[in-house]
Amino acid sequence: MRVHLTGILLLCLLTSCFENSYLEEIPEVDLEDDFSIRKIVHSELELGTVFLDSLVTSGKTSMLLGSYADPIRGHIQAIPYFEFAPESFAAIDESKELDSLVLVLKYSSTRYDTLQSFQLKISEIAEAFEYPNEDEVFYHFESLQSKASPITTAQIQIFPAFDSVKVTLPMDFGRELFGKLKGSQTILSSIEDFRDAFHGLKLEVEGSSPLIELSTETYLLIYYQEKNETNRSSEEMKISVTNTLYPSKIFTHIDLNRDGTLFANRQSKTWISAEETGDMALADELGLSAIGLKLGSLSSIGEIPSGYYIAEAKLFLPVKRLTYDAVLNPVAESMDIYAIKKIGLLDTYLSQATLYSLDNEFQENTFFLLDATSYVDKKIRGADPGSNLWMELMAGEALNTGYLALGTNSTTQKPRLEIILIPLN
């Protein structure tokens, strides 16, 4: 439709006369009615969930550890693998003997209940820590072989007020590693020799635990002292995951079991309508899922003979009740919005959306309010007829432990598109 100069001038006049607070009060009308400004509420939207088949878990600033059964996303088990680098390459003198070896697990955040302690199995990796593909990444389904017997299994508890937990490793393992660091045959002659002799560690929870974001500041601390001395002073050596000169490879193996959830037995890269899953669609980085949104037909809106201007088009997307809580499982508060024409192939990045309203107490007023004016305008005018919206949790430097479930909560709390139209006479 062509808009003449007089129409543009009228538009400027109209838009300057209306504040947002007034536009909110515009009544809904039928397209056949005479009008000066129209507010159209379009609720024929279809939410859907799409599961993908892979997630890169290497190259992150942290690792994930834990095992937890969530009624929405399913049971998630996160198993981190990581290698080390010594902070000093000076060989330890043969006259020294081991006092103790401590693994210090640094963590930055947790999800789910941390009240109960849990069993942590610590194993030594038994093969070279090499990338399994040309992309030089580790995916969530990959793993490394570990030695048959674990180094130890320890009972630990995570306290959110603290930033680390210490596990003293058995003396047998400590003496074996300490012996390789001593004398003329030390593995400290180079980083290659060190990592050939000690590939790294694997951590695995036995039973149930919260999900724990482990920092790459995790380290081994070796305490040692002089043999046969009466008043011996203790020395220490730090072997870190984080090392500026010799970065360590890390990744997290993730097992996901959706049995017992509304999303059980679903195929990947297939549209799963929210009508099949309790009027709910799921975006979950750990669960490999994203949310799709089909706006339905908007062609009738574009049949105004005089021409029109879309002043505003906003998407109202409620967060599904009983899928989050304020303390143990907070709702994900941001997501990326794309336009797609084919599942798995992102076409155009549209915007970053953040939570507009949060109601932790009653969960009746938690929703996203997205400005979709440009995209809706194109759809009404016939551009991108085959495209839909694609929403996923924002990828970050760390794996996102949260998830987002959108859907219908009631007849008034349901996904909808609100459009403000200004005619051009």
Can you walk me through this structure?
Residues 1-23 have low confidence and may be disordered. This protein has helices spanning 5-17, 20-23, 171-180, 191-197, 373-380, and strands at residues 38-42, 46-51, 62-70, 74-82, 85-86, 96-111, 118-124, 152-156, 164-168, 201-206, 211-215, 219-226, 235-240, 250-257, 272-273, 280-284, 289-294, 308-318, 334-342, 345-357, 367-371, 388-393, 403-407, 416-423. Strands 3, 4, 5, 6, 7, 8, 9, 10, 11, 12, 13 and 14 form a twelve-stranded antiparallel beta sheet that branches. The protein has a ten-stranded antiparallel beta sheet with strand order 1-24-18-21-20-19-22-17-2-15. It contains five helices and 24 strands. With 425 residues, the chain is mainly beta. Strand 12 and strand 13 (235-240) form a beta hairpin.
